[in-house]
Design brief:
By secondary structure, the protein is of the alpha/beta class. The protein is built from ten helices and nine strands. A six-stranded parallel β-sheet has the order 3-2-1-7-8-9, sandwiched between helices. Strands 5-4-6 form a three-stranded antiparallel β-sheet. Strand 4 and strand 5 form a beta hairpin. The longest helix is centred in the N-terminal third of the chain and has 17 residues, at 64-80. The protein binds ligand BV8.
């Protein structure tokens, strides 16, 4: 029976039967919370820059105040945003799948705010800062005239606690994500253009070890393999529909 969102029955069955589900999310999952995706045109002051020009150690070395202010602009959007039905559906999935590994490229912290217990933040989290010398992490700091603010303990500039282009991902996070791709039996790639490495390789790693792979995105490009499900849909609509199709108890009436 075709369900409301024409989700292939094979995918519903695979989700219901999966022992270990791995999910990789990208900016598309947060788009429905009003957070522009990485590749959407930057607005206002930032229109003249491309994200890659600002999200790098060189940019921070050249102009720490500009980079710090870009992240402050994004942080105030993130703090004002709310998790959307896509985030909430993934938190709900945690209660149904025997094992769920949620891997995110997003730096907005919305998965944890939606109730996901332990999202793997491959690229860090811009609501945190860290000392650019000692590496100490800060969840809050005093904003003053000086931007970036000085580290409270050593005075060096604070930087956003994110992974910039050209920087290595946190080894433990990357290892956990890789292990999940290697051991899952269902891999969902949601809301990501699949451009940025090494995260972009995870669906293929899962596919090559025999997992069922589904790509849920607005501009789906078939790039994993013939056994893959491609669903051109909004994550905030498709994910709730998929999880209720797989796990909703038949109504008692
Ligand atoms: C590293 C944090 C090595 C910062 C980010 C050439 C070839 C291959 C690789 C490279 C290369 N040259 C350089 C590299 C490496 C580079 C890379 O991959 N570059 C790319 C551009 C080619 N990678 C790195 O530098 C990584 N580090 O390789 O280190 C190393 C090893 C040892 C020692 C030293 C160094 C680090 C990469 C991490 C960069 N940091 N973020 C910040 O955010 O400011 S990346 C950032 O961009 C995001 O985190 C995310 O990963 C990426 C954006 O991608 P998406 O999330 O996919 O977002 P995007 O906008 O692209 O797509 C959104 C999709 O959603 C769209 O398809 C859209 O259609 C869809 N959508 C929209 N709305 C919805 C939707 N879908 C569903 N529902 C909706 N409602």
């Amino acid at each position: 029976m075709a369900n409301a969102h024409d989700i292939p029955s094979g995918l519903i069955t695979a989700l219901r039967a999966a022992r270990h589900v791995a999910v990789l999310t990208g900016a598309g999952v947060s788009a429905e919370s009003g957070i522009p995706t990485f590749r959407e045109a930057q607005t206002g002051l930032w229109a003249q820059y491309s994200p890659e020009d600002l999200a790098s150690p060189d940019a921070f070395r050249r102009n720490p105040r500009l980079v710090w202010e870009w992240y402050a602009w994004r942080r105030q959007m993130v703090v004002a945003a709310q998790p959307n039905p896509g985030h909430i559906a993934l938190a709900e999935l945690e209660r149904h799948a025997p094992r769920l590994t949620l891997i995110t490229q997003n730096v907005d912290g919305l998965h944890r705010r939606a109730g996901s217990a332990d999202p793997i933040e491959l690229h860090g989290n811009l609501t945190r800062a860290r000392c650019s010398v000692e590496g100490t992490i800060y969840a809050s700091w005093a904003e003053g005239e000086v931007a970036p603010p000085p580290c409270p303990s050593c005075g060096a500039p604070l930087r956003p606690d994110v992974v910039w282009f050209g920087e290595a991902l946190p080894p433990a996070a990357l290892e956990r994500a890789w292990d999940a791709a290697m051991t899952c039996d269902l891999f969902l790639s949601v809301g990501t253009s699949g451009v940025v490495e090494p995260a972009a390789s995870l669906p293929r790693v899962a596919y090559d070890q025999g997992a069922t792979v589904a790509v849920i995105n607005l501009d789906v490009t078939g790039s994993v393999g013939p056994r893959t499900y491609y669903l051109n849909a909004r994550s905030g609509v498709l994910l709730p529909a998929l999880i209720s199709a797989a796990f909703a108890r038949p109504s008692s009436s």
